[in-house]
Amino acid sequence: MLLIMKRQILVSIREVSNIFWTLFFPLLLATLFHFTLGAMLDQNGMEPLSAAYVPASAAASDGNTGGRKNDPFSEYLETLDQTWLDIRLMTEEEARDALKNDEVLGIFYGGDEKSLTVGENTVYTSILSQILEIYEKNEALITRIAREHPEHLSDAVAALEAYSSSTETITFDGSSMNNVQNYFFALIAMTCLYGSFMGMYNSVGVQANASALGARLTAGCVKRYKSIAASLLSSWLISFLEVLILLFYMDVVLGDIDLSGREVRILVICAAATLYASSLGMLIGTVGSWSENLKNGIVISVSMACSFAADLMISGVKGAIETYAPVINRINPGALTTDAFYSVLVYNDTEKYFRSLILLTVFGLLLLTAAVLSMRRMRYESI
């Protein structure tokens, strides 16, 4: 079987047109995407929010910022002081200078009449407004409870302090939330789908009525299961290696994706996607007595349709399908692959990742089973 695999691989890589469309064409598209879309990748990246805090005493006296002690509003801001929010204690004069020089996005003022001063209105300054609004609502709620139901005050304060037990923090694993990144993920998905070409050509190559190599294998009494296994493994191996080359090029050479620390999960999903594609190609190659050109056209049509539905040509197609016909995204290998990439490289969403992995593997094995059954039923009256 290893000898058959070797022959299949040599035949495949000697077909210049096959290698061009399955390897060099994706590399060319990746280069074009880099120079046309690469500059847009970081435009919508999440920036740290910097804000100044001026205690009531500092607003009244420029030289003293000691009013931060025993200040509930200051303590509230400190609980939010994380990697995405930087609260800086300043005097009023320092804060105004920092806002004027764009060193901070806004100024929080403490005291009885809390307020917020911002510069240019942006998405980030609206987040600062929400921070103040939430505090004021909670403060008004506690004041009302203390006035009307003082016996429940301690319970209300405990409930507000324990908000973290009722919420779940969702973070981003990647450095960008830009929708442009989906084009790069869809390109990788398309390359995985191109494994169907290899699966189709290799399955045709072991059929006695479709190729001279298949006739020689059958005449030589090569066991059918060896031909089938060699056909699958050779097409799967070539497709997977081509995807690895593309990933290396986009990560190391172009720098459009960052796989550092997540290589294993990405390789697993690519292996499942190429299995799906190779099995699909094998099934198309074994069904019917159509010509190789017609089967090639079917493979192209299916691959392009799946890539289009995965946002390769127009962004937003996959989202519209998810809204109106989500079942299509559950069977489309392109959509499943891009979902898995988003789950690993952008969102820390293991549920969607494993869902995509399981669906790709299950559908790939089902298609492979159908292809094997179709090839096993083939009989030849004469060669």
Task: Describe, in plain words, how this protein is organized in 3D.
The chain is mainly alpha-helical and 383 residues long. It contains 17 helices and four strands. Strands 2-1-3-4 form a four-stranded mixed β-sheet, with helices on both faces. β3 and β4 form a beta hairpin. α12 packs parallel to α17. It is elongated and about 85 Å long.
List keywords for this structure.
single chain; 383 residues; mainly alpha; four-stranded mixed sheet; 17 helices
Which of globular, elongated, flat, extended, rod-shaped describes the shape? elongated
Mean pLDDT, all residues: 80
Main sheet specs? 4 strands, mixed
Number of helices: 17
**Order of strands in the sheet with the most strands?**
2-1-3-4
Structural class: mainly alpha
- How large, in whole angstroms, is the Cα Rg? 30 Å
In helices, the fraction of residues equals 55-70%
Q: Which H/E pattern describes the elements?
A: HHEHHEHEEHHHHHHHHHHHH
First-last Cα distance: 22 Å
Number of separate strands:
4
Strand content: under 5%
Pick out the low-confidence regions. 60-68, 169-177
